[in-house]
Amino acid sequence: MPDMLSVKNLKIEATSYPPGEPPKVVTLVEGVSFIVEKGKVLGLIGESGAGKSTIGLSALAYGRGGVRITGGEVLLDGKDILTLDRNGIRSIRGARVCYVAQSAAAAFNPAHRLGDQVIEASLRHGIMSREDAKKRALYLFRVLGLPNPETFGDRYPHQVSGGQLQRAMTAMALCPNPELIVFDEPTTALDVTTQIDVLAAIKHAIEETHTAALYITHDLAVVAQISDDIMVLRHGKTVEYGSTKQIIEAPREDYTRALVSVRQTKRDEAADQTGAQLKIENISAGYANGFKVLHDVSMHLPKGQTLAIVGESGSGKSTLARVITGLLPPTEGRITFEGKELPRALKGRSNDELRRIQMIYQMADTAMNPRQTVRDIIGRPLSFYFGMHGQKKTERVKELLDQIEMGTRFLDRYPAELSGGQKQRVAIARALAAKPELILCDEPTSALDPLVAEGILNLLLKLQEETAVSYVFITHDIAIVRAIADSVAVMHRGRLVRFGPKSKVLSPPFDDYTDLLLKSVPEMEIGWLERVLKTRRMESAGN
Amino acid sequence: MNLRSIPFSAWIGIAGIAIAIFCAVFAPVIAPFGERDVVGDIWLPAGGDFLLGTDNLGRDLLSRLIYGARTTIMVALAATVLSFSLGMLLSFTAAVVGGFTDQLFSRFNDLMMAIPTLIFALVVLAVLPQHLWILILVMAVLDSTRVFRIGRAVALDVAVMEFVEAARLRGEGSLWIIFREILPNTLSPLLAECGLRFAFSILFLSTLSFLGLGIQPPAADWGGMVKDNKDGIIFGISAALIPGAAIATLAICVNLVVDWLMKRTSSLKGGRGDA
Amino acid sequence: MMESGPLTGPVPTDGTADATHPRSAELSGVPAKPNPAANPANSEIGGTLWRRFTFRRPLAALILQRLGLSVGLLFAVSLMIFGGIEALPGDFATTYLGQSATPQAVENIRKDLGLDKPWTERYLSWLGGAVQGDFGTSWASKNSVGEQISRRLGNSLFLAFFAALVSVPLAVGLGMLAVQFRNRLPDKIINVVSLAAISLPEFFVGYLLIMFFAVQYGIATFPATVYDSMSVTERLSAIALPVATLVLVVLAHMMRMTRAAILNVMSSAYVETAELKGLSMFRIIARHAAPNAVAPVINVIALNLAYLVVGVVVVEVVFVYPGMGQYMVDAVTVRDMPVVQACGLIFAAFYIFLNMAADILAIIANPRLRHPR
Prior knowledge:
Number of helices of chain B: 10
CATH class of chain B: Mainly Alpha
CATH architecture of chain B: Orthogonal Bundle
Shape of chain A: globular
CATH topology of chain B: MetI-like fold
Largest sheet of chain A: 6 strands, mixed
Radius of gyration of chain B: 22 Å
CATH superfamily of chain B: MetI-like
Helix content of chain B: over 70%
Shape of chain B: elongated
Oligomer: heterotrimer
Largest interface: A-C, 64 and 48 residues
């Protein structure tokens, strides 16, 4: 009997049109082969640009933009779907193979009710009658744990939350009883506490319906919970392909090993946490339309240490950073820095006050002017704060490039010519150039691939040792907190939930929210998801 | 950028603009007759001494066309430069300063734009004395409302980028932020917009002249030439169509170049896709 | 005019916002409350009656807001047309009499025209009259301006209506055609031709058509005069050429904007979803693209109809058609201020009304506002 899906020696190309140059053909994927058996889940994992989404879409014989499948075979039940004509391909899409997109919010049509969209493919392909399709949708809404399954389908996409939409999208894919579903990073856009529910729902639904799946993600810990086999991809080629157990517990390739061990770094906190270089007292803040974002937040940070502020989106952690910088003046409370109260608004602060607090952003792409060279970007604070110019300035820029472990050959490059990690390093150098006493780091690693992110974290730790700079580190990632923090503040819906030395904050007894947050972070361990769900069920039974 | 990446259509546009500018600059040298000289009978057909024939007063049409290029391009260019400078200055100020200034400028701009440009021009020109500089000023002010709108949108797009915030946090002044951070990143779309405004200015000036409210006779100007010769149409005399065609050709040429500039801008923006 | 559009207000309407509220109630399949999304925002709002109304009936509130805005805008425009003219240099009485004016004659004229009264008083009486359709008497012909306008406005609307009737379906059809053949030959041809058409001045198109159809072939009439005693068919044949001119001028713009609007929808993620469901091309377009493209396309049409109102001015002059446009241009050349003011106000009113209609239709077509949480 042939395998349900068998991909052989896949080659995918695209044509790119660089401005001012003749168009050129780029190879996105080359020599990739894998097999998905009936009812099994294969995880595709890799960094951005590894070609994993492209491979996933090839199972539907679909290429986004100018992407073309130029070689190899995609065998569905032994039949190559790449050789089919338009109608042949149409009869497969949405009937035998379905797709779940990363952003369900964009993938649902805003003009139609969710229920109609969920059953549309089943009706159009003549798989079931409207009555049966509705019954199946109801069943799937129940399996996926959606609220009020009877009336859920009457809602419009903008009327439900992101996590619910992602589950509805899964229901839409499962409805026609397909043989295979392609999940394209279905939980990446969600908060951790939402992600775990969606993940559990997807896993449960796949098991219930015995559907095979391709699960695409960049997070090895996530895929370890859900897949039977894993394929590690890099630059469009296979790095390692094996069972989940083998990949997680006994990886053969260096790259896989690095991926598995990436979250293992831990640092002991500073013993003495008494002083306060930065003191935040009873801060409340909100936007001009009266929407209050921060409620009475207080915390402090001793010199040369790291304060991690953890929370999900909407917790107010980034707003707090804006308040500290003066971009958003607080409505109440005060901020003291080195024993002196900081003027509330940016305009009131002196250049020296500004110099002492620097900032690093999440997206290094947008944080640097694309029309300036590395030399100009790092050099500007030098001339602005210290009046340096000419040779002296160049020397100092070179020193800084050394400090961030990049050579002087990068001096005259533009940001577009740098990789994501290099950009973030240049941003760090720009902050360092001002000789700051405090650097605010707003999720500086969350847009980066895991290995690159680890490099940045290590660089930040090294710089702290060298220059005794303090960090306020804003993140949603508990693993990073463990790796770098001395003290931790947990925020939820604009309020401070918990604050103290790392060892205290991250050990029991917990408050409800911190407990939930800590338990929701996927761990690189097979069976973690089941374990967490089980303890949760026991807890709720005990209550 | 290299020359080979410029598409054929854009080359046509560039060539057309170059010819028009050449005519405008060297008008006295190339034109066979004077701008206002009556040299023959009225509405002589094309050919012979008069390559394009003569107009309603017996002046050489080709010579007037060449001199007309001078007036039309000069006035349209002056109005464009003025409207662009004014619109950019106000829009960037609004975008960078924000708050009340932004509200004031934007609401006033909305008000100005609530009246169609041509109607507004008609009302204003009915009151003001007929001078060339007044005409240029009215065209510039009316057109600057469009520049303001685009300029503000583009500047706001860039102004919310984090590198501008970073410059603010550094303590940079507004001038640095406008000229060193925002302007270099908005040049490409604004250049396209500038071309678009120029094409619009040519058409607008011609329309006003055609209605008798633009450039006053006997100075030659393309729109005015259409007005002068329009009565010949009923008799099958195509003298009015020639300056009309000149306006259309120049506007097409400018638009071809703008079209290319816009495509170039959008291909610079895009092209980043996750695999 | 969409900057302060439907997405403002205290409620984040973009759907992603509530994904940002962590919801502990939903853990491990325990159903959350029916409509949790609205709650956090709801408690923050309370407050005034209007705010509560905005929250409960966002659609009605936005439409009311647009209506109010347009009335305010019209009022401001009337003030500008009247007051702006007052503020500009030049004395009407002197203009009115020409260069031979004696100071005594100027004084008399000022009294005659009411120019000796303060301008606020004159403005109020002018506005009061304008609302009732009385725009005073023309300085040049001494006729009632309102009477002239009532006759000519009908003629202009007749012209614009038929131009719209032809151009709208044509533009939408061609726009869809261009999308269907995107980046292929028909699209490229349409692109180049429409680019050229945008660059043609109205009067050039007009005279070109006259030259060919009226003079060379004699199948159309010129000038396009209409009388009260004409039958509808006679009228239609008289306005054939002006309508054709207007259509050509407005068509290219409308078509290019339609194409862009539809392309925008076609490249969205939900159309990709539809494609990955294996739906037929027809169903993708009819069911998934069209409902979302309606709003932008209607917007495009309304904006271009506003443009038509202005295009009428030049076309009427070219074809010597007895409409508002010609009336205004004639008045401007002789500086007949009451006529200029009246025509200016009416043109602006139509323009504002059509822009408002565009905004309101776009709001109504937005499912997020039609089905509030």
